[in-house]
Nuclease HARBI1
Amino acid sequence: MESIDSDSSGDELAITVEILIQAQANLIAVNEGEEGFKGGSRKGKQPNRERWALEGARRLELDYFVPDCTYDDESFRRRFRMSQKLFIRIADAVAAVNPYFVQRPDATGKVGLTMLQKCTAAIRQLAYGASADSLDEYIRMAESTALKCLIEYCRTVLAVFEGEYLRAPNSQDIARLLESGRKRGFPGMLGSLDCCHWSWKNCPSAWAGQYQGKGKKPTIVLEAVASQDLWIWHAFFGMPGSNNDVNILERSPLFSELYSGRAPEVEFTINNRTYKHGYYLADGIYPKLSTLVQTITAPIGKKRKHFAQMQEAARKDIERAFGVVTSRFAMLKNPARLWNKEDLGTIMRACIVLHNMIIEDERDSHLAEDFIPTNDEDPVNNGSFVQFLENYAQVHDAELHKQLQNDLIEHLWQLKGDEED
């Protein structure tokens, strides 16, 4: 038995030595520029294609990122959907957190892709909805690498910026939203609420029935709230397309902080009545909640017709926001080609974060004059379960909903009369 064990150990040692010698010979051949080993990193895998990535990186820099670049700022903004300053800011922040975006040599000493190449590949896929393979000729990047850049970029953008650019409004934000709503004739308005669908081309067959909506194709639903400046304050993504807006609202965390007593205080007066909660403009499918104001179907009388016209005009904010996001990031307009639902959610939320960052970057300077100083301390949740039930009942109070709508009808009619006078 001992001789058999020693023979086995000797054979294993000989095989190990042979593998090390072969690996060293391959490395020497690569470093000396010889033809070397023709296989890939494992048996059956093709070797990496020489794409001249450094030349591609240099061409990208000459086109957009040097003082006397080929294309001007307008061309950069059109093709990257944002200013060069914002793009560099995001790229630097992403590279500082995720080492995947740092240019490094591989095991053979060959220098890899640059930060700008990887970030450009991700943005081009989001902006144009292009396939990963189409980036190879310009970015000099393989299809699998381009897809990995997309997912890593979106995940890192969320990790770094989601807490700031996709959050619930704080006290100062609410003060500005209330002032904006007051100027439009809707005191207490916090934004507009609606849903949109993203078609899922590669939805697994086992899920197709669950995700198939009225369009007979699998979709995933996004519920969002947007303000007049098209800033998206709330995004709830992932519900199957077979659900309608009411089902999605029941699962949404939109009113969670209001139920639990953590929402910032909102107080406004309409028609000599004081209300304690803000509201969102919505379409007719939503339930009659005290925090939602819908239009009037087939209104009778001048007052109600005027209210319906004003409500429908103001509610277009969310429709405009959806249109801008999908136009800015064409990947959201085209059917989703990825298989993983979590990756689709990451891409959707990352696009919304980037959308809000672009809005902030391009915001007119005169809006700073509308700043309203407020107490920025977040409310402390001292409520009990009884308080939770009271808040829930108040939100679902149909009588309060009707009273708010009637007060808004009178308020808008009074404003119309004052303008005519």
